[in-house]
Fold these 4 entries.
Entry 1:
Amino acid sequence: MTKLSHRLTRILTRLLAPLALTLAAFGAISLNPQLSAAQVAGTGTITGTVTSDTGQPVSGVQVFLVGRGIGATTDADGHFTIRGVPPGTYQLRAQRIGFTPRSTQVTVGANQTITADLALPQLATTLTTQVVVGYTTQQRRDVSDAVSSL
């Protein structure tokens, strides 16, 4: 990493800390807050793997509890872990660009680890046509490296 990257990482870490967010190694912001031991006591953990409809692991998927503000991002192997989940029943949602989002209901107990694996079908995305038009008032002789014929 360059000196600028280290400085930017330190600044982002300081800015995100009051919001209980962390900066992951690959530049994504994780929704999973850093929790103290007291906050984790009596809570559960959700772990699992996100794969594509072909069975390949999918990295960079946002996996979160709908309406709770806690979640995680999958690693290169498609694995995720969400710690500090209060006991209860939640909608667990996984989403990433290029895939159809999926949700499943999960029930977490105190001091319990549950596994929730999700498969995301690939979603064909089409881009719209963009037209770029440029105008200038400069003469060809005023522009350096101007081409006189094509």
Entry 2:
Amino acid sequence: MDVAPGDYLQQLVNDMAAESAEARRMVAIRARAEKLTFTQQSPDGTVRVTVNRAGAVIDLAFADSAGRLDPRRLSGTVMGAIRQAKAGIAAQYERIVRESGVAEATADRLIGRFRSAQPHPVAPQAAQPWPQPTPPPIVPPPPAPQRPARPAPQEAEDDFGDTFTVLQRGYRKP
């Protein structure tokens, strides 16, 4: 199979042009993907979460009604919105890659790499709310200890014989 030198050179130029076009498409994908964010609001409107292309939460906002929710329900709503936002960012990236015009094999490879780099979301049925601590049992305080009764004052026997008051004026005997 002999190829004429002119045909070989033309084939090489065509291959290089195709590779160059593919490289330009890849650069365009990267530029669009670097700015990629996705915002998801919960169905009841209490939570709005925004994730970046890596799936990290970059914004989390609560409506006023969130303060009236049970903490377990609120945490489930937040986690659900995060899961949906991460799924949305993956779908958005896939759309960017498919619309870029890269070869199908290249698109599949890029999308596969993107999905494998994302943290694996917890399935909704496997997500459990934080366990609530069991409050300690209420035990009444022990009764205060009884003080022993004060002994009755005893009359001290002294050597003075009669009662003598020192604190009165004149130090006289009563």
Entry 3:
Amino acid sequence: MSEPRWLYWGHAVGLTLLALIHLPPVIGVVGGDSLQRLYGVAADDASLQLLLRHRAMLFAIVSGIALLGAWLPSLRALALLTVWVSLGSFLLLAWQSAPISAELARVQRIDVYALIVLVPLTVLAVAQRYGAWRGGAGG
């Protein structure tokens, strides 16, 4: 390990937490009632249900990439970028779409809380990339 242990474990724990945050919506893949509970919308239309189920699969991908990046430093930048795109795009779209339902406002709050983890992880990754911890004792 070429980085201090605290940095490795900080990224591992932080990205694992972000992966877990993105995991609950994956249940939407099964459709029907799970989509209603997640988003507060009746997905009676087959096309809407397909889009929401596809969204659930994308959450599985985001979660998987974040989990891989948590434990494989070579994938950390990809993981951080993927989570930024996921959180940033939803927050921007939710902000542009106000007012939103209570269920989507809950998702928005969770994403804002996730930024509390994502921002420092990104700062650490950028600092590490530009040499802030090179040549240290690893401790």
Entry 4:
Amino acid sequence: MQQKASFPFLRYGGKKLCRIRGMRTLWHNVTFSLQQGECLCIEGRNGSGKTSLLNVLAGLHTPDTGTLTWQDDAMSHTTHKPPPHHVSYVGHRSGMSDSLTLFDNLAFWAHARHIAHPQEKIHHALVLFQLDALCHAPTILLSAGQQKRASLARLLLGDTPLWLLDEPCAHLDDKGQQTLLNAITHAQQQGTIIVYTRHHPIDHFPLHHHHMMTLP
């Protein structure tokens, strides 16, 4: 039985977005409309501006032209970008300190996000991403694939309505990709909006409510 959505009124849209870097237009006329439980895949070659678009969607950068619209309640209250505590963003870098253990890195992140019962959630995330045996290992000793899984494990700590994933399959083996797919599918059932990038056709998830966007 499908679980009840945690974010039933969620909407996120962009209209005629444009981003300029120096004298170069990275992308223009980018338009999308997503609601709770939907997924958007942004694909394009290296340098096409996929990460720049994710940064705009996260509210880290402002589009040069165009508008964003975010709604997360039943009162039709809208803003131009999602609140920071509503966004989980996993980029190319792990975002973790090499000098801390894997557990301490996740605990620090959970504290910064004011997450309740963090130890229980950290343990669950580590088990799901097959990292529980490495929880006390310094992060610097982890392989690239293990560090990627550790970054993705942060997604499970907070109940955020928007996941932004920059080439999430990078460095993951088949088992890691399946674990990520299961986590994304569960999040969609809860109503989370998923936006992820890819540059190679093999990086494809069989997801429900899946939309595609290609940057030139």
